[in-house]
């Protein structure tokens, strides 16, 4: 018999949860219930500057208010940096990563000096490959001397190692699935490990989904394109691919998606205003029982 469905809600503790997070958490819990599975809580706190301990406690408080229950211990990404470093080093040893010493400003200057570059799904100009051809020995000397650097995926080599077609199982809330094509190449030489930590969101999330045995990923449509890169990393690392559902986003009165960076109203503020959780659940179409 196959293992029961395992989902996860994975917020970052860099701001208070808002209505968009509430919808995603409730949907994860509801789909886990429908599939006869269980839900885990993961705290994605790889950012050492923006992640704050008090916001982890706030996340737990908000989920308790919503009535979202998870099973097992809470996984905190900050406690698994050695695992991410090992995955990064394995990709580098296979010749699939290269160190990049370009600052964001330098990249912007090079891009501005040329013709209009292709852009990734987030609208960011693709990295022009400035450091891709650096002598490996010379690069290691610079790293040993403390030169700031990221690690980028050599997309060309990666696609040779894991040729397409690429895709993943996309499922609906009722559990029915379809095959969705993926195009990792549109991300170019993406950053796989950052300057300050040995990982990126992309590397950490595919590692953790496999480590936790996640079978179904439920997240917003703003991360749908990133799945193209994630399925490639899963292939390169020999990891299983979960099924994915990318739900619609909760938007404000101007039609913009809710975001911590835009000052969207926090769930804590809604509580302070006397908003009842039953009303919020009903607004999203979830049972108030």
Automatic annotation (TrEMBL):
Keyword Transcription regulation: no
Superkingdom of the source species: Bacteria
Entry keywords, A to Z: Aminoacyl-tRNA synthetase, ATP-binding, Ligase, Metal-binding, Nucleotide-binding, Protein biosynthesis, Zinc
Residue span, Glutamyl/glutaminyl-tRNA synthetase class Ib catalytic domain: 6-266
GO CC, any one term: cytosol
UniProt GO molecular function: ATP binding; glutamate-tRNA ligase activity
Endpoints of the signal sequence: none
InterPro entries for the chain: Glu/Gln-tRNA-synth, Glu/Gln-tRNA-synth_Ib_cat-dom, GluQ/Sye, Rossmann-like_a/b/a_fold
Coiled-coil residue windows: none
Entry-linked SUPFAM superfamilies: Nucleotidylyl transferase
Keyword match Aminoacyl-tRNA synthetase: yes
GO term, biological process aspect, one: glutamyl-tRNA aminoacylation
Homology family: Belongs to the class-I aminoacyl-tRNA synthetase family.
Protein name per UniProt: Glutamate--tRNA ligase
């Amino acid at each position: 018999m196959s293992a029961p469905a395992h989902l996860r809600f994975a917020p970052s503790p860099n701001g208070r949860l808002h209505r968009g997070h509430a919808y995603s958490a409730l949907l994860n819990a509801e789909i886990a219930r429908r599939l006869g599975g269980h839900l885990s809580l993961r705290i994605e706190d790889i950012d050492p500057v923006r992640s704050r301990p008090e916001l982890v406690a706030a996340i737990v408080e908000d989920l308790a208010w919503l009535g979202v229950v998870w099973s097992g211990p809470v996984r905190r990404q900050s406690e698994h940096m050695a695992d991410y470093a090992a995955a990064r080093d394995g990709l580098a040893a296979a010749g699939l990563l290269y160190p990049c010493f370009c600052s964001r400003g330098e990249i912007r200057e090079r891009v501005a000096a040329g013709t209009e570059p292709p852009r990734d799904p987030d609208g960011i100009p693709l990295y022009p490959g400035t450091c891709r051809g650096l002598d490996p020995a010379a690069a290691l000397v610079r790293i040993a001397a403390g030169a700031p650097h990221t690690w980028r995926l050599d997309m060309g080599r990666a696609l040779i190692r894991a040729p397409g077609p690429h895709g993943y199982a996309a499922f609906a809330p009722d559990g029915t699935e379809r095959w969705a094509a993926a195009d990792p190449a549109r991300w170019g030489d993406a950053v796989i490990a950052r300057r300050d930590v040995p990982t990126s969101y992309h590397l950490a999330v595919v590692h953790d989904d496999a480590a936790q045995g996640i079978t179904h990923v439920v997240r917003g449509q703003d991360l749908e394109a990133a799945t193209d890169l994630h399925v490639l990393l899963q292939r390169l690392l020999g990891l299983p691919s979960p099924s994915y559902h990318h739900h619609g986003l909760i938007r404000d009165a101007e039609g913009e998606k809710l975001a911590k960076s835009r000052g969207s109203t926090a769930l804590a503020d809604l509580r302070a205003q006397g908003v009842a959780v039953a009303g919020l659940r009903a607004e999203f179409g979830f049972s108030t029982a």
